[in-house]
Amino acid sequence: MDEVSHVVVAAGQLEIKPRGPRWAHTTLCVLDAVFSIMANYDRHTVPTCQRYAAWAGIPTPLAYGTDLPVHDERQLRELATHIQTCGDAVFATQILQNSQRTWANPRAPLKVVAVRRYAEILISNGIETLADANEILTEPDKLKIVERDLATVSGHGSGARLAYLWMLLGNDRRIKPDRMVLRWLYAVLKRAVCTSAAIRLITEAAVRLGCTPWELDHAIWEHQRRTSSYGRRRPDHPQT
After folding, report:
1. Number of domains observed in the structure of the chain
2. pLDDT tens digits for 40-76?
């Protein structure tokens, strides 16, 4: 039995579900990725994203993957400009109505500062739309540079925030397996698997299973979250 077959057999124990509506703009993906860390997703993160969408006049914040890109997709530069114009503190308190900090210390930077820095770094690397993000996911050398810079932003921690960002930005066939997924593959295959090999295994297994790579990746992540003490809730989609 080849390794893909082992993955397919092990996936039989997973709950693989279709992907629901997702954020249709990089602006909302970045807000979600940063504000979901150490926060209740439904009570705090989703309302934060929705408040910005309403304030910025985004008429279609959510869409199914088959409907992307939406005709009115906002470029990430818009979010960066809004924060820079208002100032970090004002944007956090008056626009987002969320003054959470990047880690549990009253002196830690506001999460909105991390959002601004994420936006500035992504923009400087030519990533402003969902299409731009999916392009970078196919270029490992460029991706490594972007991730190195993003890792310097306050609140990076174990890297879960960054892995989650790519999950939000990527389409159903673009994945970047994080440590939860790599640990599952290690348990299934009895060997360590690098990220590029994990992408190949999950993509090929998804074809055999009749699902998308994103759906399989997410099912693995949810399984690991339920059966281990590592990680945080990674939501299926941003609906309330």
Report:
1. 2
2. 888 999 999 999 999 999 999 999 999 999 999 999 9
d(Cα 193, Cα 200) in Å, to the nearest integer?
11
Q: Does a structural domain hold residue 239?
A: no
Task: Go through 105-139 and write b for each residue having 16 or more CB atoms within 10 A of its CB, e for each that does not.
Answer: eeeebbbbbbbbbbbbbbbebebbbbebbbebbee
Residue 101, SS3 per DSSP: strand
- Residue 96 scores a pLDDT above 50: yes
Full residue range of the structural domain in which residue 205 is found = 1-18+172-234
Record the pTM: 0.83
Please tell me whether residues 7 and 70 are part of one structural domain: no
Phi, psi of 37 (to 5 degrees): -70, 130
Q: Which two tokens stand for residue 119?
A: 């936006």
Say if residue 157 is in the same domain as residue 181: no
- Considering the domain architecture, whether residues 78 and 193 belong to the same structural domain is answered as no
CA–CA distance, 33 with 167 (Å, rounded to integer)? 9
